[in-house]
Amino acid sequence: MTTHTERGALARILGPHDGQTLGSPDGVRDRFMVDATDSGGGFSLVEHLMAPRSLAAPVHRHSREDEYTFVLEGRPGILLGEQEVFPGVGDLVFKPRDQWHTFWNAGDAPARVLEIICPGGLEELFKVLDLMTHEPEPEEMASLAARYGCDIDLDATGPLMERHGLSF
Question: In this structure, is residue 6 part of a structural domain?
């Protein structure tokens, strides 16, 4: 049974395979569980499923959102400014707005994390990128990211990929 809350949004339960999943099984897949329209703009919730040694995003920062990454499975690596951390299952990592960061699967087995993005809306950029039928040129990626209040640092991304043997 579906019920309405006082604000009119539908209450619902998501099963382990519910939600829209986009991306590549050979790299990173994003499962969109709660988006900004579901939460009244307050937050979004995305599960990132990462193949071994895959980079989830180029080094970037966003001006409007804070992110919280909760590790469900595997061994992610996370760049926070100049610091690299390797949280374990059950750990929560806070990535504040305006801080350069990225994350990847540092292990040889699949990894899964839940990403809470506050406020919501940035998940739309993930959807746009997931649905692209071509590999965007650096200028195209930077322009697209800028529409969502993001900056991308491709010069910092290459050395990180080489250091950890990552594909993107």
Answer: no
